[in-house]
Amino acid sequence: MFILIETPLFTSLWPDYWTEEERGQFCAWLALQQLGKEIDAADD
Fold first, then answer.
1. Long-range contact pairs involving 8-12 (C-beta distance under 8 Å, separation at least 24)
2. Of residues 41, 43, 40, 18, the one with CA closest to residue 30
3. Total of domains in the chain
4. Is 2 domain-assigned?
5. How far apart are alpha carbons 26 and 20 in whole angstroms?
6. CB within 8 A of 1, min separation 6: which ones?
7. Is residue 25 part of a domain?
8. Which terminus of the chain is more solvent-facing, meaning fewer CB atoms within 10 Å of its CB: N or C?
9. CB neighbour class for 27 (10 Å; exposed up to 12, middle 13-18, buried from 19)
10. How many other C-beta atoms are found inside a 10 Å radius of the C-beta of residue 14?
């Protein structure tokens, strides 16, 4: 599972379209998808 970061635009618009439960289900579904690449931690 991955961490999701919501943009300010998403945060302001989602209540116009979904309930809190629907938003949670969508975010859980997104977190389970493996479409992107993992970002490696920077070495100090």
1. none
2. 18
3. 1
4. no
5. 10
6. 31, 32
7. yes
8. C
9. middle
10. 16
Which residue do the tokens 């493996």 mark?
34
Question: Is residue 33 domain-resident?
Answer: yes
What domain range includes position 30?
8-41
Q: Three-state SS string across the chain, please? A: CCCCCCCHHHHHHHHHCCCHHHHHHHHHHHHHCCCCCCCCCCCC
Q: What is the dihedral of CA 15, 28, 31, 44, to 10 degrees?
A: 80
- The per-residue pLDDT for 43 is 62
Each residue's pLDDT, cut to its tens digit, for the chain (44 residues) gives: 677 889 999 999 999 999 999 999 998 888 887 766 666 676 65
On whether residue 3 sits in a domain, the answer given is no
